[in-house]
TrEMBL record:
Membrane topology qualifier: Multi-pass membrane protein
GO terms for cellular component: membrane
Low complexity biased stretches: 1-22
Compartment annotation: Membrane
Region span, Disordered: 1-25
Official protein name in the record: ABC-2 family transporter protein
Origin species: Oerskovia enterophila
TM ranges: 48-69, 81-108, 129-158, 164-188, 200-219, 259-281
Length: 290
């Protein structure tokens, strides 16, 4: 009886991904590459660069020296209250123009140039592509807030914030919401030239009902109730509470009580984060319409 020798079985191993392209490190590397590319394009655009550096201090100077802030807040308000309102308005406008409008323009421009389509065929995930394109706009907004905040402290007056946590939540949450809405807006924006029209309804309604451009007390109660559920209003509420620490009656409250005052706007902002993420995932258009 003979014994047959068994031949070792050859196994074919699937080619492994290049080192450094998987996991968190690979994701950060890909996002970093996209950020560098977008930043290079931003630095070449002198108009956008000038707006990012000089627009915020110029806006603060206009509001201060024209007396517009006192007209909206009231002549009897203290300098710190006026300064808090100015910073709140600055952040809200930055979210709308620097984040929402600029990102909608960037996403549509990259889509029409087929950049997004090429990126999706590579190793980048959808989230990495969106984050990479959004990061320069977010950094520009933060730069505006630093310069604008310094101008407010110099010309108007600004006390130390009552609750820094609420300020961070408002800025980060608002940035996420309007970056997501910018991605969703590509669904009804056919060309780069039409961005001005397609984004106008959201920008106008959000700013009008935020309480920074028009006192909501002048509007009917039903409109005031509706305004509380718009995406920019909870950001303004959180900023106001975090900066001033004042309750509805105008009296100062403690650090812990500011969280109780912020419960409703926090819940609304969180809901908008969920809605914005769903809208971006559902309606973001990655390829041009032909």
């Amino acid at each position: 009886m003979t014994t047959l020798a068994q031949t070792p079985r050859r196994t074919t191993r699937a080619p492994s991904a290049p080192r450094g392209t998987t996991g968190l490190a690979g994701s950060l590397r890909r996002v970093g590459s996209l950020v560098r590319a977008e930043t290079t394009l931003l630095l070449r655009n002198r108009t956008a660069l000038f707006n990012g550096v000089a627009l915020a201090p110029a806006m603060v100077a206009f509001l201060h020296f024209s007396g517009a802030l006192e007209a909206v807040v009231g002549d009897g308000a203290g300098a710190s209250v006026v300064g808090a309102f100015a910073l709140t308005s600055l952040i809200c406008f930055a979210l709308m123009f620097v984040v929402y409008y600029n990102l909608a323009s960037a996403y549509v421009a990259r889509r029409e140039e087929l950049v997004l389509k090429r990126l999706r065929t590579g190793q980048c995930s959808d989230a990495e592509i969106l984050i990479g394109a959004a990061t320069p706009a977010v950094v520009t907004m933060l730069g505006q807030l630093v310069l604008g905040g310094a101008a407010i402290a110099l010309w108007i007056g600004l006390d130390a914030p009552a609750n820094v946590v609420l300020l961070l939540v408002a800025v980060l949450g608002g940035t996420f919401v309007f970056a997501a809405l910018a991605a969703a807006s590509t669904a009804f924006t056919r060309t780069l030239e039409s961005v001005q029209l397609s984004t106008l309804p959201i920008m106008a309604l959000a700013l009008l009902l935020s309480g920074t451009t028009l006192p909501l007390a002048l509007l009917p109660e039903s409109v005031q109730t509706l305004a509380a559920f718009t995406p920019l209003h909870p950001v303004g509420e959180l900023l106001t509470i975090g900066l001033t620490g004042l309750g509805p009656d105008g009296d100062a409250v403690g650090f812990g009580e500011t969280f109780a005052l912020a419960a409703q706007p926090l819940a609304i902002l969180l809901a908008w984060c969920v809605v914005g993420a769903w809208l971006a995932a559902r309606y973001m258009r990655w390829e041009p319409r032909r």
